[in-house]
Queue: 2 jobs
Job 1
Amino acid sequence: MNINMFIDGEWRESLSGGRKDILNPATGEVIASAASGTVEDTKLAIKAARGAFDSGIWSNLSVDERADYLYKIADRLEEKAAEIALLETENNGKVIRATTNVDIPVTIQTFRYYADQIKLMEQESYTRADSSETIIIQEPVGVCGLIVPWNFPLMIAAWSIAPALAAGNTVVLKPAEVTPVSVYKLFGIFEEVGLPAGVANLILGPGSKMGNELAESFEVDKVAFTGGTQAGQSILRAAAGNMKKVTLELGGKSPLIIFDDVDFETAVENAMFGIFHNAGQVCTAASRLLVHETIYDRFVERLAERANKIVVGNGESETIEMGPLTNESHMIEVLHYIKSGIEEGARLVCGGNRITENGLDQGFFIAPTIFADVNPNMRIVKEEIFGPVLVVEKFKDEEDAVRKANDSIYGLAGAVFTEDIDRARRVVSKLRAGITWINSYHLAYVDSPWGGYKQSGIGRSLGAIGLEYFMELKQINIHQKANPVGWYAN
Ligand code: NAD
């Protein structure tokens, strides 16, 4: 597969001619060749988006017309769902049951949701004592740079591109360098449904240069970024030049709290799903498990026993429960974290190694890994690892659980498992996190705002508010005719 950039309605090579091999992380095989662009390509894409926005070709359409495009995009995605799910599995490594049942359906739902949502937007109006009127309208922000990560390449792209387009913006999208395939297919659909040239542009290449240009450019009005906290900080700084609007969906180190009144096996399975889903490469991964001291030893033992049985392999098979890490350098980084955990004295209770047996030696697999008896100063407890690595701590009581749960620079997600629903609500109300669950984990709903407290980000994706972050508010104060002010004597 030959993947190029899509700029001003045309498929283009990079101006520099640069290309990058795209790998299947389960096999190490090259599955595609993608253009690898530069700052110059980024400038071209921004120019196209600027021109399309300023011409009004998109923002002047009625909301019904824009919504129709989004419905058509969703319909085409639905027709190609099986093909795109398989491509996502091949490019990202995530298991086919996830791409088939989560990534692609949620992507489709997101386009439909924002098509519905833009039609529901209402304007406010006030009539004054002097019969003048104020109306408050929402307008698109302008040119939006959308920068997305590799862990849910298509779904997270949809979380920003669907509301951005629904609102009337034009966009330049930059996927992560290693996972361009599904997004490339999406842009093929944009072309098929006849999205006007320049409205949606795709650039491919390194984030530090191309993403940074999107954040710095005075021709870009907003950046919506999903990725690591460090890159988020760099974007915030780069965006200061023209004071562009910025929303940031960043990392996490989310706690899952288990009280001793739970159904033991169900809680164990949920804790496994919390951390090992998508091989731990989920921003909300429940990477810190807090277990009540009375069941801690038994819980750790059972968790390790079951984690050792997780079926790891090439996610193209329906029976596989956990796939590889998405790229080699990330796998190496995760292995370094595991080494640091051992060196800092944490007790490794399972995993801790790369898996190379049974034909997995060319892929980037790490065994489900659990550390017990950790302390809050260890790197594996403080830092986001973004892999299948869990740390387990014990707690004494409710207060201790909340204190430990909140002891993080992050505040993306958190969960509580207990059959005492009053206690669950009390605890959740004290968690400093934007996404919380009681007796479940990882469920995401397109109608509910997604994002974090503290260093996990700024703003929210999804929900009605996810659309508002792509709009500006304007007040229009209307007098039918001008009246004298009566302020000046002469
Ligand atoms: P990353 O920060 O390395 O890259 C994300 C994107 O930003 C990529 O497209 C990359 O090319 C680009 N980029 C990198 N440096 C940049 C810079 N200086 N300026 C502009 N763009 C830059 O993240 P990743 O490794 O792709 O993804 C993993 C991270 O994303 C984790 O920290 C995870 O928690 C986070 N994440 C957060 C959410 C959320 O909704 N909060 C969702 C998914 C992933």
Job 2
Amino acid sequence: MSKQTLDMILKSQGFGTRKHCRQLVEQGEVSVAGEVIANPRAAFETAGLAFELFGEPWDYREQVYVVLNKPANFECSRKPSHHPGVLSLLPEQFAWRDVQPVGRLDHDTTGMLLMSDDGPFIHAQSSPKKHIPKVYVATTHDPVTPELVECLLAGVKLHDEPAPLAALSCRRVDDCHLEIVLEQGKYHQVKRMLAAAGNHCTALCRTAIGGLMLEALGLAEGEWCYLDEAQRALLVPGA
Ligand code: URA
């Protein structure tokens, strides 16, 4: 249990500097349990706290865990150069609280992207030691053959990689779609593996991480949702 003053609560949630948050409260823009609170030093228990800012409801969150259904033509980089950044698809206070993508998807890759401001969570999700499977559906230029699937399962040698990289599992979906599951997250890994196996990836979508499936979240492209504890537990199979 921890009590904090309202200005510090707003600051922790990404609504700006302490001074700005103090002003928001003093201007009567914040209410708790239906009552306008104009004293920035009023203290509240943060666990389970719900408040309204400019009439919009917010729940206090110590950390933010989000899944975005990433559209094409958005960059995961913090300093995007050629396309808008994925953070522009989320409420602006997320950037204030340093929410960042967990790993990277290429600008033209779509699908499941985790985002959080919880450093240890980001680290654990990105760590190869956790062996978290990531599922991709690749659209291929040439037809998906049994030989292609076998080759990806057996492992392909990529430039700059000391050992061949193999898919954890791989299956033909239809003539030009392949589902491939990887444990690692090397640079352009799916595209490079497909190229090394003699085909070409023309589109790529990440459909699941661990046991959490994008489809189950019902998000259209560009939409996002918070992840609850049960959904987060699915991200690390067997955890
Ligand atoms: N592999 C790729 O080639 N690109 C991605 O965005 C993710 C995995």
